[in-house]
Amino acid sequence: MMWMNVWAVIRREYLQRVRSKWFVAATVGGPLFMVAVTVVPAYFASQGERAERELAIVDGTNVLYERLAPELEESGWTVHEERWHADVMTELRQAATDGVIGGFIMLDELTLETGEAIMYATNRPSTIRQVTMRSSIARAALEYQLEQRGVDADAMLRGGGLRIELLSDEGSDMEDPEFAVAYLGAFFLYMIILIYAVSVMRATLEEKTSRIVEVIISSMKPWHLMLGKILGVGAVGMTQMGIWLTFGILMFATGLPMLIAAQPELASLDGLRDVLPGAGMLALFVGFFLFGFFMYAGMYAAVGAMCNTDEEAQQAQFPLIMLMVVPIVMVMNVIENPMTPLSTGLSLFPPFTPILMWARVAGGGVPGWQIALSFVLMLGAIFAIAWLAGRIYKVGILMAGKRPTLPELWRWVREA
Amino acid sequence: MSENGFALRMQGVTKRFGKHTAVDSFDFEVPRGSICGLLGPNGSGKTTSIRMIMGILNPDEGSVQLFGADPDVTRRTKVGYLPEERGVYKKMKCLELVMFLGEIRGVRRAEGRKRGQVWLERLGLSSWADKRVEDLSKGMQQKIQFIGTVIHEPELLVLDEPFSGLDPINQDVLEEIVRDFHAKGTTILFSTHLMDQAERLCERVCLISNSKKVLDADLAALKAAERKGIVAVEFEGSDSWIQGPEIDRIESINGGLRLILRDGADHQAILRRGVAADARILRFDLVEPRLHDIFVRHAGAGAVGDSGMPVGANLGGAS
Questions:
Q1: Quick one: CATH architecture of A51-157?
Q2: Which of A19, A218, A226, A398 to mutate to test the interface with B (most CBs of B within 10 A)?
Q3: How many other C-beta atoms lie within 10 A of the C-beta of residue A70?
Q4: Quick check: A214 and B54 CB within 8 A?
Q5: A111 with A142: CB under 8 angstroms?
Q6: Could you report the per-residue pLDDT of B68-105, keeping only the tens digit for each?
Q7: CA-CA distance, A365 to A335, in Å (whole number)?
Q8: What average pLDDT does this structure show over B5-19?
Q9: Scanning every residue of chain B, which has its alpha carbon at the shortest distance from the alpha carbon of A396?
Q10: What is the pTM of this model?
Q11: What ipTM was reported for this prediction?
């Protein structure tokens, strides 16, 4: 009986949300949106200048074309070779003017020595294209020269290699360092923690302004209502992530191989798989979400309870937004310098932990005890916040009139 | 369940908001099984009292007891509370909402569904069971909320202005339901500013004015005791005889006049003056006072509401 009403609140909160159009839209739309913001601009960038992408190459050296062609093809050009003859310049000029090709490149002995070449084009290529083309040409020339001397040009040019051997045994078992995982993951954590914590605030505010809270509080302890709300909304968040993860895993486990089998030219996508976080990282991600959510949901519930209107709540949540924005501002720094005392310290401060500890962990090498400690600290913070927020909630949820000042809030906490 | 004879008892309860005293040393009892009206003009402290009963406000002084003990959550779940400001989850389906309100007071879902369907049927809303609350009219929403108030078959019903916002037909439906609960032995406390309603329904009345209890008594006994104070007259001819030291004031109602006498005045003297003045007296009738009259008599001329309106005017407008 004691927990029956908490269960009723969880159940109501969960079902109302999961059945809503908003949930369906966000669950389907979230990944679509992520794909849209990452893939679509790249696609458009690659689609632009399509007509001007047909390039002719006149290779006076006879050794550069075979090296250069694959590189240029990879960066989106379509190339073919034109044999040198007396009228080749005139013919290609004409072809370019007629729009048959986008332009042509002349390679000669000087290219072999200095990497310089001349490109004739109807339009000036974008700066990025110029840079990639320049480095492709220089690379082809350099490769040839080094091969003549018996050097493994390919390995050198790929940037060599540096293997890290840690001298302490505190190394983390986490997967390969990966910037994208660290940064996107941190940002994603920020978004979902915020979205779901704010949901708790809005739900609290709605109950308060619609006055239904009077009926509910006359039948259950405020603390139980708050707990039920937070658990219910948290369960919705977990469901949504579960759906996303399931589909993500399905996509990469079955969808991608099928796609590549059908269209072999997409084989480069297969490399994506190496970038993806492993099971350990996914578990950590879910852990950071849950602990972060419980911390912020408690605080947001208190904010919802102390306000009477949306506008008031917008203002009152400002300190909490700050608390979430600070780690987002710091995240680049922390990714770059994950082991400095500052990064370590900030990532162990519970409100910052989900975002900053994730950023550090995704980079690899964070000692396991620090991760464990961060969870212990967050757990402590959850209890402290629940205690404080519960008291504010208890008084605030039934209080009409103006928003309390800080000293008044403190009085609520002491007297509740 | 017989700790004492009262479902509800308030002793010396005072509530202040800043400098304003909303409820002033209020003593009040509701005997088990009775149906009791809490009457008073707007702003007199009815809702504040009810909110203290339900633990939504804490009294600054005094104590509230439910069923003879401190009003903890377990005892409050035996109360059905309809607040003055209606509140529902607008996005929920009607039956779901009713079931939820039962569930938080310990009614299992299957049982809640059964009872909910019976109630929806009774209030003519069964075709709305799976519609969202927001799709219903205000009055229908209010009926849904009433079902939510009684779904757990409470021992005490606390209804704050239950009839306001309902059309006359639904007021009658609700009145009948309240009577049914009373007949089943449920204790009922409701607040209203509608004197007629209270007069029809209540066994006991408690009158509040200006944050203070003015009167708290059995309605029938009260009316009998007050009976000698009002005379209805109809006459032709001179009206000089209806002025005199016995008469406090005169009201005109339905073409006739009502003479409100001062305390202890003798109506016989007035009648004698009338005969002497040679008026044709068609009617001279000692009438049962309306609740309205009783209230005005006890609240007195000093009873002025927050708005500065005399209490009588306030009540008159409402009834």
A1: 3-Layer(aba) Sandwich (3.40)
A2: A218
A3: 11
A4: yes
A5: no
A6: 888 888 888 899 999 988 888 988 999 999 999 999 99
A7: 12
A8: 89
A9: B56
A10: 0.72
A11: 0.76
